[in-house]
């Protein structure tokens, strides 16, 4: 037994020493060389096959008649900026009056006319910096390099997003530039607790992803969980925030969205101030926020700009529209097929007369009509904007009228599908849930009547009750009930009665900060008294 323990200890020591040796070897290989030419050879070998990789040799008046090299990517870095603030500054300087040992520090602190300059010893950092559009400067005799900010800004102008129109509120929308998007958030939250954290994720693309949250307000456990899930993305290249949404959500196979997205800066800022974590992705205007609750699908940022009674009424309309768009086809088919006794006699005669000319069962008729409407909606989205709206409107009118006249569908069914379509647009964030649930309940109602609809509804409700978004129950504040949060749920209380931050999102640091703040202010008041 003792021999086995001794052998295990020796193996552990051997493994530890091997790991340390591997780290030291990697650090030695990854360290920038003192010889500038060797560093340039490494860059040419790594990036030289790309036609946009550029490097330039500068020969200012140096003590030992050696050269300075700069390297960058054409298009990613601004050549005008490089020429004006880096190259000119180096060429105009007489380095012979400076000591060779202080050359690196002097160039960094006195000569370069750029806002941000940092130094690095690692080749990996050099490569990543060049790929981000920065300029790398190699000085002779130093095993480190300078990295200067020089990115070329190619940003779309700030416009109102088409996907989220509003009557009152900001007209600004996010763009594809992550820096500009961050600025739109920063200018709305002038607070030192606003925290930004960057990371590069993906197998090859190394997409820049930025977390933004309020330190002390956002739950630190949620922040940690978001970081861990993002770091676990290694085998997939991220090209849009939708990739991230699918890879980090709690239930990938669920109908219900547990991560929110928006193009509106004011909406994202409102969520950040309520303890959410925002996830920005380079190359897309859609910003993600977590956690996301079901009730948030019926709330818009514009609600807080209106009177509380108007907002409460509009929210009730949104919730009613969800039930109408999901249940109307299923209820119509179930009542007309299995429960005719519930229909008034006059209306029943009208429905029977309309269905008499239709050769298809009511269930199949409803399925086909809803399917055709989804096709029209998809055509309107994918076609060019001026043509898409015309195709959707004209196509629906012509097809509906022609189908009724030809006896393919009944007029009541056209009315039902039209009502279903209109109410479905009101809660657009639940579009996928609405479409799939509508077909599911229609199928259940067409086969089993009210019993099938009831069982389908119970299955959907039970599934929603089981969901959590980054540890927060999806149906809060209804399941479980949080009394303080019911003030801003289906109905909205006056702003004076609302808390700026929900209790279940407040971190421990926020409570400690407020406790210290209040105790400090009371002490000050006591001294003043």
Automatic annotation (TrEMBL):
<comment type="similarity">
    <text>Belongs to the GerABKA family.</text>
</comment>
<feature type="region of interest" description="Disordered">
    <location>
        <begin position="509"/>
        <end position="529"/>
    </location>
</feature>
<keyword id="KW-1133">Transmembrane helix</keyword>
<feature type="transmembrane region" description="Helical">
    <location>
        <begin position="358"/>
        <end position="375"/>
    </location>
</feature>
<keyword id="KW-0812">Transmembrane</keyword>
<feature type="transmembrane region" description="Helical">
    <location>
        <begin position="439"/>
        <end position="462"/>
    </location>
</feature>
<dbReference type="GO" id="GO:0009847">
    <property type="term" value="P:spore germination"/>
</dbReference>
<feature type="transmembrane region" description="Helical">
    <location>
        <begin position="316"/>
        <end position="338"/>
    </location>
</feature>
<protein>
    <submittedName>
        <fullName>Spore germination protein</fullName>
    </submittedName>
</protein>
<dbReference type="InterPro" id="IPR050768">
    <property type="entry name" value="UPF0353/GerABKA_families"/>
</dbReference>
<dbReference type="Pfam" id="PF03323">
    <property type="entry name" value="GerA"/>
</dbReference>
<dbReference type="InterPro" id="IPR004995">
    <property type="entry name" value="Spore_Ger"/>
</dbReference>
<feature type="compositionally biased region" description="Polar residues">
    <location>
        <begin position="520"/>
        <end position="529"/>
    </location>
</feature>
<keyword id="KW-0472">Membrane</keyword>
<feature type="transmembrane region" description="Helical">
    <location>
        <begin position="387"/>
        <end position="404"/>
    </location>
</feature>
<dbReference type="GO" id="GO:0005886">
    <property type="term" value="C:plasma membrane"/>
</dbReference>
<feature type="transmembrane region" description="Helical">
    <location>
        <begin position="410"/>
        <end position="427"/>
    </location>
</feature>
